[in-house]
Amino acid sequence: MDSTKSLEDSDSFVDDSDDVVISVTVDVVLQTEFHEEKTKHVALQIWPIRQMRPVVEKLAANHQLLTGQRVLDSLFPYLKMYVEGKEVSIVERTNSVMNTSNMPVADYMTLSEYFRHMGDYVAMMANSTSPWSEALRKSCGRLAETSANSAYPTHLDTRLASFYERPARVRCLDNPEREGSLSIVGA
């Protein structure tokens, strides 16, 4: 997929590479003209699902993760927060994305990284990575790839490691300088 494709006269982006058709409606946020050449700038970010977003640096995880969820905070529940001097319920500042157990976890990791890149502190609850492991095992068998004695693919440890290396407290790229955090809570 070429992320540098410009939009013509429509407001939708279509990618049909690799026999996959993705159609996303985007908003043109700015249109510039230079030497009689018009360019549309859109509110669209394209990033591969299985790659970590680049960051300036990973920072030490020396802050407590306060989520407002008793199950996660247990000893330190925190249900209110202060925004610009006003006390606000944590629910008003929370984005929740739900999925079924058979949907890919990597999609939601990418979505969580997007919010971290915006400077937010994100807690992702991964229900279970075992369905993902089972899916890799089945695809390995169907593709006649080599598998270990347990019938799981030999690259399973690498895939799982690359997934669990992505969460971190980071200093984000771009301006303004900001810090974000992504934590995975496995259930």
UniProtKB/TrEMBL annotation:
<dbReference type="InterPro" id="IPR022878">
    <property type="entry name" value="V-ATPase_asu"/>
</dbReference>
<dbReference type="InterPro" id="IPR000194">
    <property type="entry name" value="ATPase_F1/V1/A1_a/bsu_nucl-bd"/>
</dbReference>
<keyword id="KW-0813">Transport</keyword>
<comment type="similarity">
    <text>Belongs to the ATPase alpha/beta chains family.</text>
</comment>
<dbReference type="GO" id="GO:0046961">
    <property type="term" value="F:proton-transporting ATPase activity, rotational mechanism"/>
</dbReference>
<dbReference type="GO" id="GO:0005524">
    <property type="term" value="F:ATP binding"/>
</dbReference>
<dbReference type="Pfam" id="PF00006">
    <property type="entry name" value="ATP-synt_ab"/>
</dbReference>
<keyword id="KW-0406">Ion transport</keyword>
<dbReference type="GO" id="GO:0005765">
    <property type="term" value="C:lysosomal membrane"/>
</dbReference>
<feature type="domain" description="ATPase F1/V1/A1 complex alpha/beta subunit nucleotide-binding">
    <location>
        <begin position="86"/>
        <end position="185"/>
    </location>
</feature>
<dbReference type="GO" id="GO:0046034">
    <property type="term" value="P:ATP metabolic process"/>
</dbReference>
<keyword id="KW-0547">Nucleotide-binding</keyword>
<keyword id="KW-1278">Translocase</keyword>
<protein>
    <recommendedName>
        <fullName>H(+)-transporting two-sector ATPase</fullName>
        <ecNumber>7.1.2.2</ecNumber>
    </recommendedName>
</protein>
<dbReference type="InterPro" id="IPR027417">
    <property type="entry name" value="P-loop_NTPase"/>
</dbReference>
<keyword id="KW-0067">ATP-binding</keyword>
